[in-house]
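Severity: low
Component: inverse-folding endpoint
Summary: output formatting inconsistent between runs
Steps to reproduce: submit the following structure tokens with default settings.
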């Protein structure tokens, strides 16, 4: 290699490394990061086509990771490949946990079951390197490099492979770590909701009995000659019992039905319109006018448990009714559309023009039991809405707000295919 070429190659390598590290730092998806690694590996090696698979330990299968020059159809076909002693160069490298170099796929026995497949993608030689965890040596994935001609790797090629496999291993390990954290958060939130539901249920009966008893006692006291001595204390008892029961109702409404629900295909416009209708009395009382508008061409469908999506939408609407405006009320605009960034994402906007939230409230509003209406509300509404959106609907709930400038929620959901 000439010095000029070598300088360019080093620059390309560094540029690729910088791009991948910034994707890792910004928390980009695993697929995006691995595809970027595949892209930069290809930039450094003109004739090569790269494919990176990650290993799913729970199923023992290799999963679609990243690719750049290779078409999606290639990735779809190799998705689910089970490592084995004759499973092409990638499946075999994953099985052996050591690099497999197939100089010619037409003669290498590990390719015997995949020769037609290789021909479709113009693959004649293939080098596959397993991605191993630096921590415990376990299999993270495999990095495949495919060429249209027969060849063996040079020292320089191997150095390049090692560079990109290291980056890919970091990306996969990072993603596993993030997923483990998310899973533990999900479990913690679920536990908290189950506990709250259980407590609300258990407290409901004794408090209800106490309220009935206090009413009976009140009737008795009214007949007593010195009734005035007791009425103030009795009013205090009854007032606090009422508050307790109101709070319990609010807890109960927030954490309703933790049981698994049937997943079905829902028309988002219809679901939102019906939810708004069902909240009629709440909206009238708060003088909140809700306008629902779909800008999506045709029916926008999502697959999920209906009651879950209703739960999230209800929370966002009742919050606008409760917190956004004063006694004169105001408006909430709900816009249903598709995401501009992701073609397969439904995007629901909930925009009010009320008091908005301070930076502090915005940061804490979805924490469990956080409320600025203490004593009347449970403060579980947004916590539940976010938990349900992320762990049950596979979506995201994003907030934009400023004091005096209203609240804008973006609810992103995977569209039904
Ligand atoms: N549209 C909004 N405008 C202004 N503030 C809001 C809005 N929505 C939520 N908030 C603020 O976020 C806090 C948390 O909301 P969240 O729905 O979690 O609880 P809550 O409404 O107070 O109680 P709950 O929903 O359990 O009855 C609210 O107390 C309020 O301060
Ligand atoms: Mg609420």
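Observed output (run 2 of 3):
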């Amino acid at each position: 290699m000439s010095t000029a070429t070598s300088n360019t190659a080093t620059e390309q390598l560094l540029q690729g490394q910088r791009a991948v590290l910034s994707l890792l730092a910004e928390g980009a998806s695993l697929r995006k990061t691995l595809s970027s690694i595949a892209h930069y590996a290809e930039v450094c090696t003109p004739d090569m086509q790269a494919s990176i698979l990650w290993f799913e330990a729970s199923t023992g299968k290799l999963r679609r990771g990243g690719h750049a020059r290779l078409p999606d159809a290639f990735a779809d076909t190799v998705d689910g490949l089970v490592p084995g002693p004759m499973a092409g160069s990638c499946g075999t490298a994953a099985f052996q946990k050591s690099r497999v170099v197939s100089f010619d796929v037409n003669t290498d026995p590990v390719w015997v079951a995949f020769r037609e497949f290789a021909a479709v993608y113009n693959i004649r030689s293939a080098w596959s390197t397993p991605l191993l965890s630096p921590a415990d040596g376990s299999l993270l994935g495999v990095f495949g490099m495919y060429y249209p001609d027969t060849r063996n790797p040079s020292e320089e090629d191997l150095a390049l492979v090692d560079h990109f496999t290291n980056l890919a291993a970091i990306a996969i390990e990072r993603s596993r770590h993030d997923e483990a954290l998310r899973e533990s958060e999900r479990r913690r939130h679920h536990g908290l909701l189950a506990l709250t539901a259980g407590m609300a249920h258990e407290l409901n009966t004794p408090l209800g009995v106490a309220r009935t008893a206090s009413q009976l006692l009140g009737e008795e006291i009214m007949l007593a000659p010195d009734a005035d001595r007791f009425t103030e204390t009795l009013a205090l008892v009854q007032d606090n019992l009422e508050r307790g029961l109101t709070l319990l109702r609010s807890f109960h409404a927030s954490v309703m039905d933790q049981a698994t629900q049937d997943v079905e295909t829902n028309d988002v416009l219809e679901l939102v319109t019906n939810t708004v209708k069902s909240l009629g009395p709440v909206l009238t009382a708060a003088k909140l006018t809700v306008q629902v508008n779909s800008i999506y061409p045709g029916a926008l469908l999502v697959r999920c448990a209906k009651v879950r999506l209703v739960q999230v939408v209800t929370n966002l609407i009742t919050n606008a009714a409760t917190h956004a405006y004063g006694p004169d009320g105001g408006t909430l605009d709900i816009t249903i559309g598709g995401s501009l960034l992701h073609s397969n994402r439904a995007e629901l906007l909930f925009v009010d023009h009320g008091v908005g939230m301070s930076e502090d409230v915005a940061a804490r509003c979805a924490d469990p039991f956080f409320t600025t209406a203490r004593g009347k509300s449970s403060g579980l509404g947004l916590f539940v809405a976010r938990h349900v959106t992320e762990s049950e609907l596979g979506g995201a709930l994003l907030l934009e707000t400023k004091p005096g400038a209203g609240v804008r929620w973006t609810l992103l959901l995977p569209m039904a295919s």
